[in-house]
Amino acid sequence: MTPVVSNNRLSGEVSLYLRQHATNPVDWYAWGEEAFERARREDRPILLSIGYSACHWCHVMERESFENEDIAALMNALFVCVKVDREERPDIDHVYMKAVQAMTGHGGWPLTVFLTPQGRPFYAGTYFPPEDRGSTPGLPKVLAGVARAYSDQRAEVMGSAQRVADFLNRSEDGTRSPTQLSRESVIAAVDGLTGIMDAEHGGFGKGAKFPGATCLTLLLDAERLASSADRAYLMRLSLDRMASGGIYDHLGGGFHRYSVDRAWRVPHFEKMLYDQALLARVYLDAWRVFDEPRYAEVVTGTLDYVLREMTNPAGGYYATQDADSEGEEGKFFAWTRAEIADVLGEEAAALFCEVYGVTAVGDFDGRNILFRAVSVDQLAERLGSEGAAAERSIARSRARLYDRRSRRVWPERDEKIVTDWNGLMISTMAAAGKQLGRPDYVGSAMRAADFLRGHLIDDGGVRHVFAGGQARVDGFLDDYAFLGRACLDLFEATGRREDFTTAQFCARELLLRFEDSARGGFFFSASSAEPLVARTRDMFDGAVPSGNSVAAELLLRMWALTGEEPYRCSGDGILRAFGGEALASPYGGAHLLCVLDRSYCGWATVVIVGSGAGRSELERAARESYHPEVAIYSVDDESASWLPAALSDKHSVEGEPTAYICRAATCSVPITDPAELAMGLRGKRA
Known about the structure:
By secondary structure, this protein is α+β, with helices and mostly antiparallel strands. Among the domains are: about 10-175, Glutaredoxin (3-Layer(aba) Sandwich), CATH 3.40.30.10; about 335-405, no CATH class; about 605-685, Glutaredoxin. The protein has 25 helices and 20 strands. The strands form six sheets. The protein has a five-stranded mixed beta sheet, with helices on both faces. Strands 13, 14, 15 and 16 form a four-stranded antiparallel beta sheet that branches.
């Protein structure tokens, strides 16, 4: 007899991820006092399951276990079961991910953690199959064993839970000794980072690969301090292989989450907003450093995808696009050769399949993941004068295949607006719009910032997420830091007063809500936030740069603009508190090392005053080299009274557009010659 499917408590939740589990036979609770009160009343352990809507293995565990009547009955009988969307509650995810990594040596999603009724973890893992597989125990065995231990070995369980809780709090509260930081130590850390790169396929390590956007940015930054042919080769190899590999969507643009193989051929297919923002920015900066037009094409392909498929009509950017469709991973993105021939005809299909590595056998369950098997240069070398015509044919084929793909069942899109991720994308859109001459990118960034101001900022501060027509969850460190930095980037692109005001608000609120004034650095949660088993202070990058590193960047840039010393003191405090750890672990501390490197180069502002063609020439001179520590602003002679110190009271000289190089409130003599401005910036860096 087929069981009757009824909704559980999650059916009324706003989170798409939680609603995806609304028909499970598991008696799920959302995170909250109701679940913990029941656990205390009935003296039951809690089974905490954390994931997100686009997570392939989260879907697998749901189908295999949470939809299984027998396994669900065991869960309901032995535990109070709690489901958490990590994208809505990153504070919960931070704490328990750190616990899982401490207990098991690894982490990932779905995250499966067993807690005491007081919220202390005592056993954990990630994905568990429905039955034993090799050395991995099946979920029913885990459930029975954990419940038995909680019942029969209570003292040992509570002791373990206490030790984990003590570890979490000790790791946050331990005193950090001041660290000697130097430019030479940054270069040494960068050399260590290049030592783990794959010299054959690019990227970091020699197994499954994440793109490592913050690490690539650090390598680009290091080129200004100590240029290296070997490092440049490894950077370009990594960028080229990712852009040609299956991790990049060659029809629709944008990057999938990561590659399961060394050669970037087979991705996990979810698309995350933050990956698009971080990788587009890396390719934008690499385009400037290496003067490689194809990197700019990756930028526009990625950002055009975001505009087309991941943007709310009212402004703001959606969070994720799922890996699965119709219950299969990658079904939306993969092709058979016959399908391609049906769309293109045999002649055009033959060329396309050769260039994109398509075979009759396939490389993904009988289908093909598109990757660029024949480069533009290789095709031109082989076809000579016909190479350009072949590339035009391939471009037409891509457009036709994208149109056919659009008629398939689309992967589900999580349309929540997450503040910190939107901050990342606003920064990239603003920078790309300015650098590439794309006003539509700048306009998109402006609309997104306006949406966040209108829907996610109120008298209570910044909110973390907008979903179901409402702003929810008080903002975290990343929300304030990423949004503040984004508004500085947008202010540089537009000069709008409201963008600077928002950046100033975020910087000031950081100091009030998050700062650890005793030791430097910032907590992830505000002082008024819901208390968890630990209050984390993270400096390591994860899927996004660490909040502390972005906070340091925001504060030091604000100091360069305003000359206000509290910004400098707190920004430098972050570098002192965490710099030693970043130097010791550059893969995880990459963005903090970027900020440290930029501090050595000297945070600065170029102010260009005046109008006419000469102003544009000065702007081009200021932007001709890669200076990530330099902000460039163009203002009119009639500077408004509200402008920050570095921008106010600047005037053109004898009616000629004039530039000033400023550090805090101290500025150079007026500069009217573009060559002199470029030389001045090179001298500042030296």
